[in-house]
Amino acid sequence: MRISERRAKKKREEILKSAIAIVNKKGYEGTTMEEIAAALLMTKGSLYYYFKNKDDLIFQCHNFVLSKAVKDLEKCLRAENGVSASDTLKKMIEIHIYYAFNQKESLNLIIEPKKAYTGEYLEPVLRLRKHYAGLFDEIIERGVTQGEFVVHEPIITRQFILGGLNWVQQWVRPNGRLTIDDIIDLFAYNILKILK
Amino acid sequence: MRISERRAKKKREEILKSAIAIVNKKGYEGTTMEEIAAALLMTKGSLYYYFKNKDDLIFQCHNFVLSKAVKDLEKCLRAENGVSASDTLKKMIEIHIYYAFNQKESLNLIIEPKKAYTGEYLEPVLRLRKHYAGLFDEIIERGVTQGEFVVHEPIITRQFILGGLNWVQQWVRPNGRLTIDDIIDLFAYNILKILK
Amino acid sequence: MRISERRAKKKREEILKSAIAIVNKKGYEGTTMEEIAAALLMTKGSLYYYFKNKDDLIFQCHNFVLSKAVKDLEKCLRAENGVSASDTLKKMIEIHIYYAFNQKESLNLIIEPKKAYTGEYLEPVLRLRKHYAGLFDEIIERGVTQGEFVVHEPIITRQFILGGLNWVQQWVRPNGRLTIDDIIDLFAYNILKILK
Amino acid sequence: MRISERRAKKKREEILKSAIAIVNKKGYEGTTMEEIAAALLMTKGSLYYYFKNKDDLIFQCHNFVLSKAVKDLEKCLRAENGVSASDTLKKMIEIHIYYAFNQKESLNLIIEPKKAYTGEYLEPVLRLRKHYAGLFDEIIERGVTQGEFVVHEPIITRQFILGGLNWVQQWVRPNGRLTIDDIIDLFAYNILKILK
DNA sequence: GATGAATGAGGATTCATTCAT
DNA sequence: AATGAATGAATCCTCATTCAT
Fold it and tell me: Using the 8-state DSSP alphabet, how is residue B166 labeled?
């Protein structure tokens, strides 16, 4: 029981990972169950053994990666040592860009949830996204409290910052003139200019 | 001929405008030819007299709006009076947000062109977008030249700024707590903080 | 406009008639859109030009024939001349058996509507059936009023009678020992025995 | 062997009983192997250890119930005490209605066997049904022989009566205005009117 | 120019069935 | 005996596209 359950979970993750790659290449509507199955050398029907339907599968793709990213951000945010808000934020920017870049295939923050998800799946997606965004609110607030940041309308500012960060997936290409670390530095530099 | 040509052109624009409204609401994949036709009290078939196919039509929607936005931006950029770079940029931000707000989907800069457009349509879209972005580069450069802005790596900074601006589409809702004008002010405020 | 409308209606009826034959041979679930289309030398897709979906098509099949039967029964019931209730009823039996026999392919009173129809289609089917049954109630009631019939619990009795009549489709075969007219006579004889 | 055989038989019956309940609720096509298995806390696959395939299983459901009904009818018919044909018939009506009411679908005499059963299963079903009907012929004949009934064309009359009885399935609902016993009385009353 | 009608290529989903373990 | 997993055929339905009139 234990074993088969674990095996099933592993398989589910395997499917998710493969599906994520396809979804991010072709988009939500552009991806077919057929294609996902084929990439795994399975048949369409088998997918339905592991996922209720396409919406479910795609939803779990999104969830899978976003949850991981959230966990990373939270760890960074909860670090107990006396790190300044600026440094924590910079670390968070790094994490975000890491996901957007290395896991581009998996964390599509760009798609509009309302178009991609319906009914029962929409709400959890929105919740998770809100949570994700909230982590940035938290660090901004902390910076303000500690007198490190000066922010007018923090929510709008956070929206602006996240927009800039998300946009990375649209244009950053590996092997560009600048390294990822360069970009992270520049972004952090710009963002701190806004917040100070 | 002349007359009929002109009439056809007018009809084409009429279709575009109606289609844009629908695309804005339902998105690219969510829009059907049927729906576009119905809204104009035409039949599906007739659309094919004016547009080669759906991709063509949607492409032209995008083009139509983006071109108008470009024209607006250019007019603002070319205004000969001695406006400061800051003020010009603020005006440009206003224009962008206006379009992002009112023409949501047809000016969907968030869409990855490589996903949405194929073959003959991809290249013009990319070109126009590059042009659009270039207008922001231009104003930044001007500000730098005139000693008004101080920018490190202007392209990266512009990408960041445009990201923040494009993202507006995803979250600005009419009747929110803040008015569009408030948001424009806040965005300009933040952006100028980066650039100064 | 007139013409094309009329042509469409004719086509719709053509489809219905063909579909009716198939549905009655294979049953509701056993019939596929493919099959219906093939029988008409059309493609599946075309059916959807005329009918919203399978439920709609099947519903209209049922409706088409049942409505005709109802009309026939009503004409017979409303005949102004001083026909006795017995004679009217006999005529109605004849009509019912006529449909069950000659139009066996089309009037399947046997299928359980609740299983075959869903949502929006169930209610009209039930209503029409109730109406059909009501016509028999009417003649029974008339007979009672006129002192011609003596009936205890007319609804139950009518249910019993209609059951016996509907059953005809299960066993009457053309070219049996008895003619249809024989069967009608025998049924009328038995039914009148119940009612008198 | 003996023991395991007996255990298998018991299991088979257990499955049948559970399946019958489901089939009664959802009908032949509406029932899935999955569902039957789930109700028994088994998996789909296991069912195939006990039954060749779905047709087999459903056929045996039908058989199981119909055989029991036949047995009940026969017991009633063979009762040696000097019961009148009328009383025997009334008892048979009671049995039929009891089954029609409680075992709705699995004793679905309304289903056209040729539609539901194929190949090897069709013939036994037809045979059993014929036998079932024959029991009613028998009592009618006995009544005639004993001078209790007067029947013209007994086969047609029996068809009519059985039709009325089978139809019960379609309309009797628990908690109606009349009790089952009321309905049995009324049916018997009407049927005897025909036969006398 | 316009349209009614038809088409056909998919795509999601269901489910009976199989089979290695 | 049982099951988890996989399969594939079948089925409904959508929609861009075509074309004769």
Answer: H
